Amino acid sequence: MSQATPPVIFVAGHRGMVGSAIVRQLQKQGGCTLLTRTHAELDLTRQAQVEDFFATHKVEQVYLAAARVGGIHANNTYPADFIYDNLMMQANVIAAAHQHGVRKLLFLGSSCIYPRMAQQPMAEDALLTGTLEPTNEPYAIAKIAGIKLCESYNRQHGTDYRSVMPTNLYGPGDNFHPENSHVIPALVRRFHEAVQRGDEEVVIWGSGTPMREFLHVDDMAAASVHVMNLPREIWQASTQPMLSHINVGTGVDCSIRELAETIARVTGFTGRLAWDTSKPDGTPRKLMDVNRLGSLGWRASIKLEAGLRDAYAWFLAHQEDYRA
Questions:
Q1: Locate the NAD-dependent epimerase/dehydratase domain: which residues (predicted)?
Q2: What is the per-residue pLDDT across 300-317, written as a single tens digit (0 to 9) for each?
Q3: Under DSSP, is residue 245 helix (H, G, I), strand (E, B) or coil?
Q4: Interior CA angle at 78 toward 75 and 80, to 5°?
Q5: Strands, E, within 235-289: which ranges?
Q6: Which of helix, strand or coil describes residue 45?
Q7: For 13-110, where are the alpha helices, taking DSSP H only?
Q8: Which of 6, 111, 115, 172 fits 314 for a cystine, CB–CB 3.0-4.6 Å?
């Protein structure tokens, strides 16, 4: 009796934090043939290149983790880049996947799709019920479009394209750029460099009062593979026709002040924390309702301080790259 051929899985964005974690998860799981391409090999914003790629390779599953991402500063500074690049990448990949018979696709969105003042914790049906956070609206609109693309292909063509909405992610492979990174890598680098210089004070943007939820990227990868592998009948039974996305998070949040104090402890900083209240806080609170994912058999397992220690260890091992 001949063995079944392992499925060919394309991970788009495999060099990013989430994509690389998904690759690690799939390699650990085994039983598949992984397909990856660098940006130099395949520019996902170029429709012809994406069409040629899918025409050449018999892809059966796609993890669409490729995206242009960044923190408040980057989103405010490059709004056109954020909306254009993300719209083009996801539209090209989703359309080409359908055209060339890809059975299953998982689109990775973001918790910023929900309204700025959404009821907390944010449930999936909060989508499109209010005004978005202005500082990352272009990025959020692109991600909402990706969800609706998946929904629309499912409705019109009977595809099995699913979307996962992660909360704030961190961990190995994160971007530790001093200006364009998210809050955890920015603070990890700032506290580390303060320790190296012997500083007595670290200045942090905002008031420290906003509440945020953080998920280790390895948990995100495990959740993504779990959702992708759910039998179609179980997935469809948990969704509504116009609600094909699912939240991924821990269901627990903390204040930015508490986060900063934890990162100070992890990095060994013992000085003062100062708050620059002239800088924006962003959304007051962002906590995901993860009950639906829990009902489908998955919950996060990595606690915040342990995850931060893992992220800091990765930063220390790669800090020469960032110094360059």
A1: 9-236
A2: 999 999 999 999 999 999
A3: strand
A4: 110
A5: 245-248, 254-255, 272-276, 285-286
A6: coil
A7: 17-29, 47-56, 72-77, 79-99
A8: 172
Kind plus residue range of the DSSP H or E element containing 64: strand 61-64
Q: Which residue ranges of the chain lie beneath pLDDT 70?
A: 1-3, 180, 240-243, 322-324
319 within domain boundaries: no
Facing residues of 163 across strands? 107, 245
Q: What is the pLDDT of residue 2?
A: 47
Domain that holds residue 237: 8-175+213-252+286-302
Measure the CA–CA gap between 4 and 91, rounded to whole angstroms.
31
310 within some domain:
no
* Annotation: binding site for NADP(+): 13-19, 108-111, 143, 166-169, 182
Q: Catalytic site residues?
A: 139
Residue 30 lies in a domain: yes
SS3 243: strand
| SS3 call for 248 | strand
Crossing angle between the packed helical segments 137-157 and 79-99, to the nearest 10 degrees = 10
Residues at the annotated binding site?
A: 13-19, 108-111, 143, 166-169, 182, 190, 205, 212, 281
Residues at the binding site for substrate are: 190, 205, 212, 281
